[in-house]
Design brief:
The complex is a heterodimer.
Chain A (H helix, E strand, L loop, with lengths): L7 E7 L10 E7 L3 H13 L3 E12 L5 H9 L32 E8 L6 E4 L24 E2 L13 E2 L4 E5 L4 E11 L10 E14 L1 H10 L2 H9 L5 E4 L3 E4 L24 E16 L5 H26 L11 H6 L9
Antiparallel strand pairs in A: 1-2, 2-13, 3-9, 4-9, 5-8, 6-7, 10-13, 11-12
Helix pairs in contact in A: 1-5
Chain B lengths: L6 H6 L20 E5 L6 E7 L3 H13 L3 E7 L7 E8 L5 H15 L2 H30 L1
Antiparallel strand pairs in B: 1-2, 2-4, 3-4
Helix pairs in contact in B: 2-3
Classes of the chains: A alpha+beta, B alpha+beta.
The structure holds iron/sulfur cluster and zinc ion.
Iron/sulfur cluster binds next to loops of chain A.
Amino acid sequence: MPGENTTTFQIEQLGDTTNGQPNNYMSIRLKNTSLAVASAIRRTILADVPTLAVDDVIIQENTSPIDDEILALRLGLIPLASGALADNMNRLKFTWDCDCSSGCEKCRYIFTVDQESNTLEPLSVTQDHFQSGDAGNSPDIDPKPFPVAPRVLRWREGVDCHEPAVSEGPIVITKLGKKQRLKLTCYARKGTGKLHAKWIPASNIALRRVPVIKLNPETLTDVVRQCPEQLEAYAELCPRDVFTCSIGEGIEVTDEAACIFCMNCLADLPDARLNNLVSVDMSTTEFILDIEGTGALTPDQMVQMAIRIMHEKTNAIKTDLLVRLGRQERHDSPDPDEMNDYGDGLDEAW
Amino acid sequence: MSMQKTNIEHSLDYDRQDIYVYPVDNLDYEVLVEMNKSEKHTHMAMFRFFKEDSTIGCIIRDLLLENPHITFAGYRVPHPLQPELQVQVQTDGSISPEDAMIEALEDMAQMFNENVESQFAAAYDQKMEDLRKSAVTHVGDVDM
Ligand code: SF4
Ligand SMILES: [Zn+2]
């Protein structure tokens, strides 16, 4: 019965969490699940998990070499830390759910940038020059959004882990020459990846199948008896060193998870007697989800929000279907006027 | 409204989200799903989920197929620019397509319930705890 297979999670790897940095990388093993569910979590993170991003830019003065439009585009793509939305997605409302006409502190977060160069050296205006005052911003939005510094994860060869994230320095928005000035106001809003890619909290999500590699004991006995000298060469066939060959003992599967399904161990075998020695399959109940974040949300927040969103969405559809079939009165949708008074309690209705 | 719009107000006057997002405060008027009974087959129906895509389509299809009374279940997204998901269901007659669909939706809500979320949180805390322990051992080594 479907109710019985509940997805369970096991965290395989985490990005660097030392020195108080939020991690940007997580590898999760989903067990007892199906491809549909694993893929739904991946797709929900990409399309439906809300974050903040600069959505409107009011440019008061721009004498920098970069055009207003390009500037606005660059500002929009800077990831903003959106941890305030993680436990309560309605701490900030979508613009279209808010009843204000021109934006208010419930549906936007304001940053200002005001820089002027007085030296001959070009002045780099970076994300560090974002200022967010209390004016116009609600104190409820906590932790405060700020532009996240890019951190690059490096893959270390041979070792199955990510090196600590390296900061690449702040994102440069533009450079100013002497007497050039940049003064602007950015309105950050809540949005989802369905509307614009700048709201996607993850820079990379990969869903992998888990390999299941089995040795056929009968073939193995035969091979050990008839042509044990072939086994070492056979273990060498695998580019990921999945097999370990011990003299006299035969061959063992020692690093199953490393398999990349290249099928070298099944095709073009040097000896016909090695046929059927191993079988390479993909698990249908286990998957690995690698999430690399932009810094807007940490990967664990993304997964939790995705699960919550899927739950709410399914319930909303089920209720609607029951209402359409005339089996249920729609009583759960709150009165619009009432809703405004309980803005924060609305997270159920994401 | 007769209020004169400033530039800022004007730029807010978009409805790009309308094709993707349910408006929270007027769900009453928003049709999320629609059922069309087939005229040719007695136990067949086409469900149209608006503003949805393969994310839920694939799960619904899988769950429907797990039901032994379902003889056919399939889904499609008619066009990538059309925010709509269509699920076709045919049963053997012992259950109506709409009951099968409601059952599938209930199962799907169960798949993403609070227990799943808290299991994930527990797994995460466990990993953090493990990491902290190994970090502490490491620091101890250096001190000595
Ligand atoms: S499929 Fe490729 S990577 Fe996997 S075990 Fe065989 S040879 Fe190794
Ligand atoms: Zn507002």
